[in-house]
Amino acid sequence: MQVTVSPAGISGTVTANPSKSAMQRAVAAALLANGKSIIRNPGLSNDCLAALDVAEKLGATVNRKPELIEISSNGIQPRFDEINCGESGLGIRMFTPIAALASQPITINGHGSLTTRPMNFFEEVLPQLDVKITSREGKLPLHIQGPLQPKDITIDGSLSSQFLTGLLMAYGANAEEVTITVQDLKSKPYIALTLQLMSHFGVNVQQQNFETFHFGKKQQYQAKDYTVEGDWSGAAFLLVAAAVAGKAEVHHLNTESAQSDKAILDALRSAGAYLMPGMFTINIEKDGLKAFEFDATDCPDLFPPLVALAANCKGTTKILGVSRLAHKESDRGITLQQEFGKMGIVIELNGDEMLVHGGTGIKGATVSSHNDHRIAMACAVAALTADAPVVIENAEAINKSYPEFYDHLQTIGGKVDVAVNA
Ligand SMILES: O=C(O)C1=C[C@@H](OP(=O)(O)O)[C@@H](O)[C@H](O)C1
Ligand SMILES: C=C(OP(=O)(O)O)C(=O)O
Questions:
Q1: Relative to the CA of 115, which of 46, 182, 331, 360 has its CA 20 to 30 Å away?
Q2: What is the pTM of this model?
Q3: Which domain does 90 fall in, by range?
Q4: Are both 193 and 325 inside the same structural domain?
Q5: Continuous segment of H or E residues that includes residue 129
Q6: Where does phosphoenolpyruvate bind (predicted)?
Q7: Complex prediction ipTM
Q8: How does pLDDT run across 322-334, given as a tens digit for each residue?
Q9: pLDDT at 277
């Protein structure tokens, strides 16, 4: 699908889409519980749909209603010997240890960019928990056979927090007096979100400094009623759109959320945007924008919207944390450099540092999403202040996290033309 976004002013009110990070965790917890859980404001992005499909294959019954989803479960009781996590990094890294709670052999698969993302962690760690595993040299498909036995273990958290999220969720089902110790954990707020979600579903973990995670007496996930929060990582694009091209009011964003990407507010403030945050509504308006510095090591998904923001800020913006981007849906440091380069914005990559030379004028161009949802959305936002339309190829990539994105952009004034067959 090809989408053309034309330069336009932004003005309007919109409600943030549901967070796929929260939704996927909730589906996993509902699967691990006994009884009927209700998920309100459910996400229907591809990653969320993949999580629902995995939950069904591992034993849950999913009943979709107009405003909510019911998930009934009796814990892990696989109905199939293969699960498919779609393109979701969180999905595969969370559901692999969960599937390993079963004693039967299971193949874990996925498609698209997920087939090239590293899973070596599991080969190092799962055998220590009595799980047999083979892979295609650290990549999909994974063949596992449990049952996973929670034990004291030390792991490396530097590549991704998602592996720890998976272990925490799986341990929650039957761990007793064991501790996970983590070295060099990145993306810590995502672990705070995991612990918050687990606690909502009745499993509490004692953590210290995000280094040790202790499970005391045996606990059990309880079926719960859960409302999915608005997604800061998707809303970041709308907020930046307003900051560079007009104004907007975005609803259903919790400023007290555990989501790491609410840090977009700090970056917008540093860039000089005019912000009026309420408890669940953010009002934002364009003001004199200036280059800024921001450390995105623990919120790597903010790089694409930050680059769209920086492209509009006069001067050189410095963003730290580039090393966190290599293994996402694309190698995002490089894809941002390439695609923004086509729009006339020079980006330098110096080790862990990204320098964006902004305020030089954004040019109309044909760009590629590299099948990466956040690259497509960043280019769409950059188009708002370009000198001519920007054509985005493989624009359907947004469906991974935010299928409503182009509609939402239009709701607040964006000019978006979709060529379905292109
Ligand atoms: O746990 C999660 O929901 C996520 C964790 C982050 O990954 P890393 O821990 O690999 O940074 C983030 O990039 C991803 O989009 C979602
Ligand atoms: C990297 C992302 O997700 P995941 O790792 O879950 O595929 C993302 O949403 O940008």
A1: 182
A2: 0.98
A3: 20-149+160-175+187-204
A4: no
A5: none
A6: 20, 89, 117, 162, 332, 374, 400
A7: 0.99
A8: 999 999 999 999 9
A9: 83
